């Protein structure tokens, strides 16, 4: 039976901002009516050719391709198959059909086959099989045409495990040749990735019963591209499917659109809709092929679901909501998407739909959990793009980030740029994820990369306009005022280094001073802003394209940044942690004290080596991820009787959240912490048992960790900064490595920004002195790096 298609009159409005205009609707309806009328006229003409002077027995004229779908545009080819039951005079019958068509100038692709011959060709030729799957009888023997359709469909379904992987490979080869339709200035509307051919292939996959037929959004996107192709053929009078720049304005007018930019934006949205749907379809095909080719696995009870994070689990290679996921949690949408990206897995379409329809979005200002989830998503690098696209297709991004609509699907009519504005922003953030070790604030780098061109589409210079937009968005995201100023300066000056390095003489001191003056927009954070600008320049240039970034430009930018850094005073070293009033009050307890209040855990105890990392190990045992930690040692407060005390008291203050599921029982956590303080809990042995019991799978590649010794940051301790991708037990591993080097942690400031940890430790040797031996420092660095791998 033929594949189902929507009725000709069932047409969704054009995607894009101008899709619902009356002029566009009228123009598109006229094009659809013209195709339907042409299909009817062709059918009547072909019927007359076959049946004049009389209808031959055992012969059928079957259309394949565009005419079979009643989608033949003015420049399209007419594809016909003349079926017969072994008639000796079939050549004469064929001549009376083909010659009049040739004489009329019709572009004709034709063949003469028996059902057996057609089946044989379809088995050997994948393209022929795709055409026959859409076969439609035009005239002649209906039974014969039905036999062909039934036979081809049966063969296709039986051979699906072998043929669908071949079809996937053929599509990928086509995409490699023609590129991605959404991001091409002069796209091939039919063959490019996200074009008409992809929708035809989706119907073929659906015919195998491996996946569902394209939904309404995909059909509407297909109809838009079909109308654009139709208008292109009418405007040019040619059969080509490439929409070149000089013809876009005329095609836009033929579609009732005010300008070429509106046409381009509509095409982008349609193409991305098709590409996104296709990505899920091909994953289903891959799972189908693996299941057919793999050995039967032992049967397990129930459905296997692996936790990935709070509210997210892996199920059959996709990420779905956990059974206890709280849809009222304002961070859930971004946290689940971040968990999928960090694991390198796609979000299940049903999960995206449920999040879009029922999940709460962050209030204004965003809570810290939602902001961290956004940073964690972007920090996944290229794996974040699929998750972002899923949220975008569901309409969630424009709800999360007001102002995104102005850059969404906006083409950049510049051959230097590879992507639309919004995709360029996401690609830049994905590239910035590889540079998070180069900056002290990876969260500001990732958010700045995501928003650096948010001013495009607005009035005036996009850097100035974008800075104003980011001032509001930064506050909306819940960043402190000082961080908002850094983001604003980052967006305003994001072109400072590349433009200065390539247009000015970097050997001139005035050039370097101009950079120093610009980064002084944020007093006290000049060096931090300079490092952010240098990293953003790399990510931005790389995401733009090879014409915008190369070895020569990278070398100039790096040298200019180095000279500007030398001209600065060295920046502000990280401040040492200090005790707040609440910590001091708890420290007055004799002996040890433990307090667990929600996600806040505070411990005071007589200081001793290993206290910090053993406490972090207990938190890891209870599946708690450390978001922040502050620890400092100070002299014991006076005893309650007023007498002086000897020794020092350590105060450890943690903020920790569950890796997934519900938080641990506070009483159980407090009891284990007390056992650890009393020396009655073997933290290392229990963590080792837990590690062996947990199934893991590789996540996305992350930049290697970085360990730096910060000179001149303290006169009484050696300051070590660790930048690494966060994972369970990270603080335990670093602290244990420091302990193995015989070092004591006098103070620590631990921060997890999204999925990135930036941890600062003030350490001394066993004689309470800072380290000054270079070999010892190198050994410490090597031990920490070994613990992080």
Describe the structure.
There is one protein chain. The chain has 29 helices and 15 strands. By secondary structure, the protein is of the alpha+beta class. The protein has 5 domains: 32-158, Beta Polymerase, domain 2 (2-Layer Sandwich); 162-293, Nucleotidyltransferases  domain 2 (Four Helix Bundle (Hemerythrin (Met), subunit A), Up-down Bundle), CATH 1.20.120; 307-400; 419-570, no CATH class; 581-788, no CATH class. Helix 9 (245-254) packs across helix 10 (260-293) and helix 16 packs antiparallel against helix 17. The chain starts with 21 loop residues before the first helix and ends with a helix.
Short overview:
This protein has 789 residues and is of the alpha+beta class. It folds into five domains: 32-158, Beta Polymerase, domain 2 (2-Layer Sandwich), CATH 3.30.460; 162-293, Up-down Bundle (Four Helix Bundle (Hemerythrin (Met), subunit A)); 307-400; 419-570, no CATH class; 581-788, no CATH class. Helix content is 50%, strand content 13%.
How are the SSEs placed, and which strands pair?
Elements: H1 22-51, E1 59-64, E2 78-84, H2 90-103, E3 108-113, H3 115-124, H4 126-133, E4 136-140, H5 142-158, H6 160-178, H7 196-207, H8 216-236, H9 245-254, H10 260-293, E5 306-309, E6 312-315, E7 318-321, H11 332-343, H12 349-358, H13 368-378, H14 384-393, H15 397-400, H16 421-432, H17 442-451, H18 462-476, H19 481-492, H20 496-503, H21 509-519, H22 526-544, H23 551-567, H24 581-587, E8 593-597, E9 600-606, H25 611-621, E10 624-635, E11 648-658, H26 666-677, H27 683-693, E12 706-710, E13 718-725, H28 730-740, E14 744-753, E15 756-764, H29 774-788
Parallel strand pairs: 2-3
Antiparallel strand pairs: 1-2, 1-4, 5-6, 6-7, 8-9, 9-11, 10-11, 10-14, 12-13, 13-15, 14-15
Helix pairs in contact: 3-4, 3-5, 6-10, 7-10, 8-9, 8-10, 9-10, 11-13, 11-14, 13-17, 16-17, 16-22, 17-19, 17-22, 18-19, 20-23, 21-23, 22-23, 25-26, 25-27, 25-28, 28-29
């Amino acid at each position: 039976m033929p594949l189902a298609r929507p009725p000709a009159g069932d047409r969704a409005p054009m995607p894009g901002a101008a899709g619902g205009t009356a002029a566009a609707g009228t123009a598109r309806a006229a094009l659809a009516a013209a195709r339907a009328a042409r299909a009817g006229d062709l059918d009547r003409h072909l019927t007359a050719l076959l049946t004049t002077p009389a209808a031959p027995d055992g012969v059928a004229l079957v259309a394949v391709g565009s005419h079979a779908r009643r989608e033949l545009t003015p420049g399209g080819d007419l594809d016909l198959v003349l079926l017969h039951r072994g008639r000796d005079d079939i050549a004469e019958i064929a001549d009376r059909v083909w010659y009049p068509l040739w004489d009329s100038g019709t572009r004709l692709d034709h063949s003469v086959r028996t059902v057996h011959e057609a089946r044989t060709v379809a088995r050997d030729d994948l393209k022929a099989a795709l055409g026959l799957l859409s076969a439609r009888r035009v005239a002649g023997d209906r039974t014969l045409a039905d036999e062909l359709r039934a036979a081809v469909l049966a063969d296709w379904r039986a051979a699906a495990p072998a043929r669908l992987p071949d079809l996937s490979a053929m599509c990928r080869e086509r995409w490699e040749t023609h590129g991605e339709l959404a991001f091409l200035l002069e796209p091939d509307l039919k063959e490019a990735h996200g074009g008409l051919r992809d929708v035809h292939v989706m119907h073929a996959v659906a015919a195998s019963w491996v996946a569902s037929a394209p939904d309404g959004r995909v059909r509407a996107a297909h109809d838009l591209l079909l109308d654009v192709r139709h208008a292109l053929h009418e405007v040019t009078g040619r059969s080509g499917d490439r929409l070149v720049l000089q013809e876009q304005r005329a095609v836009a007018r033929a579609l009732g659109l005010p300008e070429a930019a509106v046409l381009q934006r509509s095409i982008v949205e349609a193409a991305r809709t098709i590409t996104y749907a296709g990505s899920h379809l091909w994953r289903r095909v891959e799972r189908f092929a693996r299941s057919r080719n793999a050995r039967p696995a032992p049967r397990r009870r129930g459905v296997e679901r692996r936790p990935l994070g709070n509210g997210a689990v892996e199920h059959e290679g996709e990420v779905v909501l956990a059974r206890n996921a709280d849809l009222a949690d304002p961070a859930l949408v971004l946290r689940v998407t971040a968990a999928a990206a960090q694991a390198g897995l796609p979000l299940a379409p049903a999960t995206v739909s449920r999040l879009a329809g029922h999940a709460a979005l962050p209030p204004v200002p965003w809570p810290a959990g939602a902001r961290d989830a956004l940073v964690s998503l972007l920090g996944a690098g290229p794996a974040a793009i699929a998750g972002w696209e899923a949220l975008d297709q569901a309409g969630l991004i424009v709800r999360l980030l007001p102002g995104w609509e102005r850059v969404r699907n906006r083409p950049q009519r510049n051959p230097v740029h590879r992507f639309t504005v919004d995709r360029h922003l996401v690609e830049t953030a994905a590239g910035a994820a590889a540079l998070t070790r180069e900056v002290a604030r990876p969260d500001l780098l990732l958010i700045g990369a995501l928003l650096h061109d948010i001013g495009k589409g607005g009035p005036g210079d996009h850097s100035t306009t974008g800075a104003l937009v980011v001032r509001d968005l930064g506050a909306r995201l819940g960043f402190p005022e000082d961080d908002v100023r850094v983001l604003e300066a980052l967006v305003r000056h994001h072109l400072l280094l590349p433009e200065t390095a390539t247009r000015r003489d970097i050997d001139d001191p005035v050039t370097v001073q101009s950079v120093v003056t610009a980064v002084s927009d944020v007093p006290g954070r000049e060096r931090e802003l300079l490092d952010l600008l240098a990293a953003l320049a790399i990510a931005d240039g790389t995401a733009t394209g090879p014409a915008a970034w190369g070895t020569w430009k990278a070398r100039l930018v790096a040298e200019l940044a180095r000279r500007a850094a030398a001209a600065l005073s060295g920046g502000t070293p990280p401040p040492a942690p200090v005790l707040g009033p609440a910590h001091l009050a708890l420290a007055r307890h004799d002996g040890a004290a433990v307090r667990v209040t929600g996600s806040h855990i505070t411990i005071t105890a007589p200081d001793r080596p290993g206290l910090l990392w053993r406490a972090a190990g207990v938190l890891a045992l209870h599946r708690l991820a450390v978001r922040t930690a502050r620890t400092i040692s100070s002299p014991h407060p006076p005893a309650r009787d007023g007498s002086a005390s000897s020794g020092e008291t350590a105060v450890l203050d943690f903020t920790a959240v569950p890796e997934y599921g519900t938080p641990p029982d506070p009483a159980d956590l407090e009891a284990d912490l007390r056992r650890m303080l009393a020396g009655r809990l073997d933290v290392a042995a229990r963590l080792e048992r837990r590690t062996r019991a947990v199934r893991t799978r590789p996540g996305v590649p992350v930049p290697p960790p970085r360990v730096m010794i910060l000179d001149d940051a303290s006169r009484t301790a050696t300051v070590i900064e660790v930048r690494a991708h966060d994972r369970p037990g990270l603080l335990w591993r670093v602290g244990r490595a420091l302990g193995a080097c015989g070092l004591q942690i006098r103070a620590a400031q631990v921060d997890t920004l999204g999925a990135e940890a930036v941890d600062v430790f003030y350490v001394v040797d066993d004689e309470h002195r800072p380290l000054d031996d270079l070999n010892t420092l190198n050994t410490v660095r090597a031990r920490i790096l070994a613990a992080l791998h």
